[in-house]
Amino acid sequence: MSLICPICQGALQRVDNGAVCPANHRFDRARQGYLNLLPVQHKNSRDPGDNAAMVEARRRFLEGGHYAPLAKRLAELAASYAPERWVDIGCGEGYYTAQLADALPDADGYALDISREAVKRACKRAPQLSWLVASMARVPLADSSCQLLASVFSPLDWLEARRLLAPAGGLLRMGPTRDHLMQLRQKLYDEVRDYDDQKHLELIPEGMRLAHSETLSFTLNLASSEARADLLAMTPHGWRASAERRAAVIAEPFDVTVAIRYDWIEKL
Q1: Whose CA is closest to 161, among 119, 118, 206?
Q2: Tens-of-pLDDT digits for all 268 residues of the chain?
Q3: CB 267 within 8 A of CB 165
Q4: Which ranges in 32-156 belong to alpha helices (H)?
Q5: Taking the model in full, what pTM does it have?
Q6: Cα–Cα distance for residue pair 193/262, rounded to 1 Å
């Protein structure tokens, strides 16, 4: 067990109903099976992260198979790096995590999110993993303990990523390109803001380097109004755009471009 105490960084040991560190900080395991390693002093709000409605929208959309090619490629890439220990940082409701777990059956797997609602649902997908409610800025795992970190559509603390990785281990980052969901954005805004999908590369800290990059894109037909509503609810566009524009998106079927970039950023 490579878990560390989020309060004092002492090594955590399993006990019957959770985990304890040498300083006797205790953390209970929820009946669903996850450990809550987010102390109240590390919370920005009473219930941080995605709420139940957002988590359910994402679960319905992903279960519909709309992003299945993205998850398949993520799992293939992860398997090619053959880590002994891996962690999905910002796992959400666990759709991608479960496919990583299937692709890495012999590895020691961890998954965390700051949203209790997300982890509560996620841990049912792959009970063999160690599921955690925890902060991405204070990941409760020991230094240099992981060979692979997965970050899927998730914010990232780069220095924390470097701390967690063993030498020659890497961060497998999956994020949008400038073309991702372009047709949806055009329907929602008068002016679609362009962004540089390489900008994150400027943030790579000393001691890490980009070793591989590829893009996967395809056209998705959003035929059902539920799928269109769920896609809106699981993106920031769901609250940025006007109610009128959101209603127009949900009303009519349309095709949308899915364009995702995968980067393998390894620790030297």
Answers
A1: 206
A2: 689 999 999 999 999 889 999 999 999 999 999 999 988 755 554 555 566 778 888 899 999 999 999 999 999 999 999 999 999 999 999 999 999 999 999 999 999 999 888 899 999 999 999 999 999 888 999 999 999 999 999 989 999 999 999 999 999 999 999 999 999 999 999 888 888 888 899 999 999 999 999 999 999 999 999 999 999 988 877 778 888 999 999 999 999 999 999 999 999 9
A3: yes
A4: 52-63, 68-81, 95-103, 116-122
A5: 0.92
A6: 22
